[in-house]
Amino acid sequence: MATLKALLFLVAASSNVFAVEGIEAPIPGYVAETLHTRDSPVSFDGTIEEKRELPSVLPYKIECADEKRWKKAYRWYIQDGLTYLSKLRAKPKMGPGPGNCSRVSCSYEAAIWWCNDNSEKLELNSFQEIADGASSILDQCISYGLVMDRAGGQAFMPGNWNVIVRQDKDHCGDLKFWTIVPSGEQESGSPQGHKLQYGTEKI
């Protein structure tokens, strides 16, 4: 098996990932930190299979959104954010907390945040760890709807950091709706034919 050796950079391929200066923190009393795009590159050495077998980080507690503290977001758009985060090959870094947060994915009012509750700086192994936390929220905090399901909540991770999935209207793109049409008459605006377009957020 050939060895995978690549020097991969964290690049802002789409503007849904990096926070806008001055945005509101996800929780009252917390602060929002901008995730910078020019962190040091990360070098990986190993087979593709070895990278896929890296253990996931699972939350020890999940609190689902109650629509009072914050509202749930459409699962479709959160899942798209998970896919994006899983493709980033860098180590996310966060300044000291507690309550220091950065919005790492945001489109169509569906945001993923991660927060550092440590008093010192925090560096994760990969963005996949954040995606794993958000995925756990989607698994346990789902509200089923006629057209689209919603999900939201907060996942508390080992190492004193957490992930938040929620509706976010602060520089978070436009929410688009579609109508249900009979089979065989699928329109481009429906979930099956709809392609997410980023770039609504200016940095």
UniProtKB/TrEMBL annotation:
Keyword terms: Signal
Spans annotated as Disordered: 184-203
Signal peptide: 1-19
Superkingdom field: Eukaryota
Keyword Signal: yes
Protein name: Ecp2 effector protein domain-containing protein
Source organism: Claviceps arundinis
Origin organism lineage: Eukaryota, Fungi, Dikarya, Ascomycota, Pezizomycotina
